[in-house]
Amino acid sequence: MWDSSPQPDWTRARICIDFGTALSKASICLDPTLPLEVGVKPLPIGGISGAEHPLLTPSVLYVDGGRLYFGPQALELARRGVETDRDPLLSFKTVLGAGNVQEALAQKMPPSIDPTGTFKARDAVALYLAYLDQLIREAIDLAPNMPPGVANARRRYTSPVWRAGGMVDLAFEAIFNEAAAISIKLGRLLLSPEGISIAQCKDALDKAAAMPGDGLLESGVFEPHAAAAASLAFTSAPTRFVMVFDMGAGTTDIAAFEFDESTDPPMLGEIKEARQCSALAGDEIDRILIALLFRKRGQERSQADDQRALRSTRLSARDLKRDLFTQGKCALKNGWIATTIKISDLQEDPHFRQYLAALVETIAKSLAAVTQRAESVGAEVVDVVLAGGGSHLPFLPELVRAAAHRVRATVRLRVGPLSPANALYQGVDTSLRGVFPQIAMSVGGALVEMPDRPAAA
Ligand SMILES: Nc1ncnc2c1ncn2[C@@H]1O[C@H](COP(=O)(O)OP(=O)(O)OP(=O)(O)O)[C@@H](O)[C@H]1O
Ligand SMILES: [Mg+2]
Question: 10-221 sits in which CATH class?
């Protein structure tokens, strides 16, 4: 298929990794000048890791019995390990988004995640990146029509905060370089469902620190910028103003952009006053839901039983929430007893109502900035693009409208999930639609031309 001339330029290929709080995603842009449907591909790293969805793999790392596990296996072991005081989750976002990244990286992992006390956050990130590198290489290897050598394309990562250049980029570059050496040393062992011994991991980490590889890191990409790029690339009716609302598990990121077609290539300029990062995201709804379930269920016989039930519920909270919003109810089972919550129970819950009110407040702040700017230049419409897993929440469009009402916006708003409206792309892979808002950050991050990136805040 690649024989036709002129030959595409594979040196322009780049891979963008989005390691989200809940799920990691990766996409490759083979050549930004190719038509989208052949030039940009989300990589089925979830298919390789054995996750629920082929394009999403859980961002999880777990230490058990002297071995380190990643992804779905780690999650499964954690579910079995609720009897012990163990936590499986490591939020890379906390590290990436920390005020002081160096300090966050130097911290030891909590004993509930790594009872052996072996790993610092930095080690965990390096090992997880090495694992992702193996997933990416395997996915590229198995994908049809991948040009040879593109597994060694430059790497980008999406970041919830924007810091142009400086020490942080250097710190991540160093970690990517160590991850590259670890990936070469441990190879497909990283993908083993049996995990890897801590001793092997430690050895690989030490050797990588002494002799790092080439992590091929090009740069970080600001997450909403990546989402806006995906939205503009795939829309069938582009608008000059786009506000991206990316609700993930850990954070909700809002940013707005003005698309300027008077330059070549067209520029995505950011309306900085609209930028916000809030913790009002999916995990917060999970916490509200868990509290509601536990209030309804009543106390266990002992505090230890309560703790155990809480750990186990935390691990299934995302599934319970999905059931609640798609089927109108969810049930928490504990032995013989099931506690059922209806969607109306959540809607009437004071904590959930507070959450919604705070979210409207947050949206209004960003919306005020973008609608004022749009109205000042006589724009007819502003796109409000819903991205991230939270875009599935049915109440979001209504919240955006409530926020618009509050700021007395007169410009028309087009509110909807980020979806590949591009007809060509749909023809290629219809299974993408549901998951597109979640993979959009990695897709857009791979696509976007870096000179267009927004300036540092
Ligand atoms: N159908 C659904 N209904 C409700 N929530 C959903 C649905 N599908 C996914 N989610 C939620 O979306 C979140 C995961 O989305 P996403 O993959 O965008 O997050 P992430 O990128 O890992 O997190 P972050 O960007 O905050 O680091 C979780 O909170 C999950 O429960
Ligand atoms: Mg995300």
Answer: alpha beta
Q: What are the boundaries of each domain within the chain?
A: 10-221, 237-298+345-420
Architecture of the domain whose range is 237-298+345-420: 2-Layer Sandwich (3.30)
- Give the pLDDT band (50/70/90) at residue 82: low
Minimum-distance ligand 1 atom for the alpha carbon of 22: 22
Q: Is the dihedral of CA 19, 21, 25, 30 positive or negative?
A: negative
Q: Cβ(54) to ligand 1 under 6 A? A: no
Confirm or reject: Cβ of 42 under 6 Å from ligand 1. no
Q: Comparing 10-221 with 237-298+345-420, is the CATH topology the same? A: yes
Measured in Å, residue 299 CA sits from the centre of ligand 1 at: 29
Residue 110 reports pLDDT greater than 90: no
For the segment 369-386, what is each residue's pLDDT rounded down to a tens digit? 999 999 999 999 999 999
Check residue 97 and give its pLDDT. 72
Residues 241-283 have pLDDT tens digits of 999 999 999 999 999 999 877 777 667 789 999 999 899 999 9
Atom of ligand 1 lying closest to residue 56 CA:
17
Supply the residue whose CA is at minimum distance from atom 9 of ligand 1: 389
User: How remote is the CA of residue 438 from the centroid of ligand 1, in Å?
Assistant: 7
Phi, psi of 90 (to 5 degrees): -130, 120
Entry pTM:
0.92
